[in-house]
Design goal:
The complex is a heterodimer of chains A (about 100) and B (about 350). With about 100 residues, chain A is of the alpha+beta class. Chain A contains three helices and five strands, in the order ββββαααβ. The radius of gyration of chain A is 13 Å and the shape is globular. With about 350 residues, chain B is an alpha/beta fold. Chain B folds into two domains: about 220 residues, Alpha-Beta Barrel (TIM Barrel), CATH 3.20.20; about 110 residues, no CATH class. A nine-stranded mixed sheet of chain B has the order 7-6-5-4-3-2-1-8-9. The chains are: A alpha+beta (about 100), B alpha/beta (about 350). At the A-B interface, loops of A face loops of B. Chain B: Pathway: Cofactor biosynthesis; pyrroloquinoline quinone biosynthesis.
């Protein structure tokens, strides 16, 4: 299967994968099975919008509006980030 | 160098285990039950770990389910803010207990796999009936939807079953499969001739893992730990000594890795004597091999020194007789001939029985 998300796909953090505020290093990390992924501001902005309800199109539109950036560019960045997580099974998709 | 806080802690709650796997990473001298840390000391260690920046806690052993207080320990770890992973053979986990662990906030289970059928698995694990019980536990984990990694420990006697191993991971609903070839520390060194895969098996395994990882992308994540004797360069053991993780033994000794106690000139502090953060940042043992200043040649002038940090200290000691030497696995190491000799000896080895991991009679 392809790891790329369609614009109408809804990204979901599956059970066992959660955002965690790192009170020692600062910022947020994504905790999953046997791995902690340190998130930069962009990663945090994306994952804070992954709520299991919002589809990729709406997520990209929200980010583009919030950061006043072109949707095409945002879509590309978000896709790359989510594909990486999906390859590790840290992200699933509901159609 | 600036020492960073650790990310992961492995808590070896007990060395007791119903299985007797001949490659167990526990030391040859196993800690007896009456020396194990009590619940409240472990709970305090978990809080100290979280306070100093540990994010991931692995509850391990021995078999952690042999601890009657496993549910309480899981709850204490979650309350401390840690991501809690249970590393288990499954033996000792009843459906009721799995439910209690789930309620206590257990995040993830890593289930070991000794072999793909009862005959093979029970021979390798040295425990009759173990495979069937493990399969019942796997069913329960799947029914509850608890995130699962299947950890298949691979060696000469089960590597040819790799295709079946992939299928079993899928049947169990695992999201991740670790194809972990035996590393030669602790008990595995007593069984090298029985366990070392052949060169042909190693090559076939690499190919099969790469194919499966591609075929199963988005369904199953596969991590591969190759048998490092066949490698050209050593592994950066633990991501570098005292860099990312620490181990705590059943009696509370704090180690940079599983096997560190084999290095005789190092002395390890205990959580009941010193705060965990002080041990991590200031103890002589944790500072002994941090960074790259201590590295010998040929490592010191090698452009891979920030990649593998000279490899594994315990392996350098075990094979080259010197914990300060380049890991003999490295193609540039003066001790590489020792590894090649072991490979040749294993190829010719005619042993047919395992030396099982068991507590020595006292």
């Amino acid at each position: 299967m392809t790891l790329e998300l369609a614009m109408e796909d809804t990204p979901v953090l599956p059970r066992g994968v959660r955002l965690h505020q790192d009170r020692v290093r600062g910022g947020w990390v994504l905790l999953g099975p046997e791995k902690a992924v340190a998130l930069d501001a962009i990663g945090t902005a994306i994952l804070s919008r992954v709520d299991g309800q919002t589809d990729l199109a709406a997520l990209v539109a929200d980010l583009a509006a919030t950061y006043d950036a072109p949707e095409a560019q945002i879509a590309q960045d978000v896709q790359r980030f989510l594909v990486g997580l999906r390859a590790r099974m840290f992200l699933t998709v509901s159609a | 160098m600036t020492v960073q806080p650790p990310i992961a802690m492995l808590a070896e709650l007990t060395h007791r285990c119903p299985l007797a796997c001949p490659y167990c990473s526990n030391p040859l001298a196993l800690v007896q039950k009456d020396r194990e840390l009590p619940t409240e000391v472990w709970a305090d260690v978990f809080r100290q770990a979280a306070d100093m920046g540990v994010l991931q806690l692995h509850l391990s052993g021995g078999e952690p389910a042999a601890r009657p207080d496993l549910v309480a320990l899981t709850q204490a770890a979650r309350e401390a803010g840690l991501y809690v992973n249970l590393i288990t053979s499954g033996i000792g986990l009843t459906p009721r207990r799995i439910g209690q662990l789930e309620d206590a906030g257990l995040d993830h289970i890593q289930l070991s796999l000794q072999g793909t059928n009862a005959e093979l698995a029970d021979w390798i694990g040295g425990y009759n009936g173990g495979f069937d019980r493990k399969m019942q536990v796997a069913d329960e984990i799947k029914a509850r939807g608890i995130p699962l990694t299947l950890n298949a420990v691979m060696h000469r006697h089960n590597l040819d079953d790799l295709d079946r191993t992939f299928d079993m991971a899928l049947e169990m609903g695992a999201r991740r499969l670790e194809v972990a070839c035996v590393q030669f520390h602790g008990w595995a060194t007593q069984n090298r001739g029985m366990l070392l895969p052949t060169r042909a098996q190693t090559a076939a395994t690499k190919r099969k893992v790469a194919e499966a990882a591609k075929r199963l992308q988005g369904i199953l994540a596969i991590d591969f730990v190759p048998p490092d004797y066949y490698a050209e360069y050593p592994k950066a053991c633990m991501g570098g000594w005292g860099t990312a993780g620490l181990n705590v033994t059943p009696e509370g000794k704090v180690l940079p890795c599983h096997a560190a106690e084999t290095i005789p000139h190092l002395q390890f502090d205990t959580v009941t004597d010193r705060p965990l953060a002080e041990i991590w940042y200031n103890s002589a043992a944790f500072n002994a091999y941090r960074g790259t200043d201590w590295l010998p040649e040929p490592c010191q002038s090698c452009d891979r020194k920030e990649v593998d940090f000279g490899g594994c200290r315990c392996q350098a000691l075990a094979l080259a007789g010197d914990a300060n030497a380049t890991d003999p696995v490295c193609r540039h190491a003066p001790g590489r001939g020792q590894v090649d000799a072991l490979l040749a000896a294993a190829e010719a080895d005619e042993t047919t029985a395992f030396t099982y991991r068991r507590v020595a009679a006292t």
